[in-house]
# Entry
Amino acid sequence: MRAVIVRSFGGPEVLEIAEVPVPVPGPGQVRIRVTAATVNPVDLHTRSGGLTAAGLLPARDVIGIGWDVAGVIDEIGPGVAGFGSGGPTSGTPDSGEPGSVGPDSGGLGSVGPDSGEQGSAGPDSDTLSSAGSDSDMLSSAGSDSGTLTSAGPDSDMLSSAPGPDSGMPRSYLVPAAGPAGGIASDAERFALGDAVIGLSDRLDVPLGAQADYVVLDAAAVARAPRTWSAVEAATLPLNGLTAAQSLDLLGLEPGRTVLITGAAGAVGGFAVELAVARGLRVVATAGAADADTVRSLGAEFFVPRGERLGEAVRALVPGGVDGAVDAAVLGAEALDAVRNRGAFAAVVGGAEPVGLRGIRVQNTWIRADGHQLAELVRLADTGALTPRVADTLPLDRVAEAHKRLAEGGLRGRIVLAP
# Structure
């Protein structure tokens, strides 16, 4: 199979499409035939060696690229509890044995390398630029960054279980990650051929999500949104989870106020929509040209970038907001808009401001969480979240995707459709 890797650090020219063995799922894992994989700023920093310079990724002979994936389950590893007839799948790629959709079988619902399937463009700007832009920057090892400081690696929908004679694919009981990243008491049932999304949240891996196949822990996977294309769905895991986990850190009750910086970007845009879904009143900041887009996401107040943020926010919310998600990495400027003893979530490690005035400042270290991802999927299917796709390219044009992301000015993410 093909996979995007780097063997040395540098510009987009060091990206390599390598032929590698198809990975085999281990205990508690599933293999996904990749339909779409998103290019995120963390990929640029992995490729350039920035994460290694920051002490977050050891130097290796081969490093895999890619975090976000949408695709179909084609094999389930041992130790994933069976549900229905028989046990976990065995079988190997191309074996034709039950329980395995081989790499050359065409998969179930997958997009082949020459299919040319294109996703629709989303409305949200993800400009890759310096702090203070609408770019969200590097979100805990990878959402939206043009500047690397020292970022870190960082309603379940149940299908019915077909009976043994139903002729339907067997369904497997897959553990879902709970709010703290552990195994939840409930679970999501996956079957071979199910459309899913997932997050590869480890940096030190030889194969990432930008490949024909990827193996993930079952607890990092959720069913794909029914109302989004695979290309659109591939933009949800990293950026959506970063936004959700940042809001979790704030711990604000409904009716409270929250500032979202970089609100037109991928993390910031999802943060606005998720905050609104949680009953929070949102003050958003982005470029003036993005005002209508940000308001359409649900922001109650909008402050154009370039104004003195603390004064502008306090004119709208006397005393300051209760919390802030600093997706644009404005640091002390955003902190000034937060009330005394408020809360502040920084999405770039090492860029967090000092917690003046008793403000609780925390970093968002992104983690894969299938349970939380399933909730994001539920919100996506209700229309509460907006897809963010700038363009779709084939896997062999990954270097072009890196160049365009580095140049900035994109609205949404570039997604690779292998």
The first strand starts at residue 2 and ends at 6. The chain has a mean pLDDT of 80. The first helix runs from residue 41 to 48.
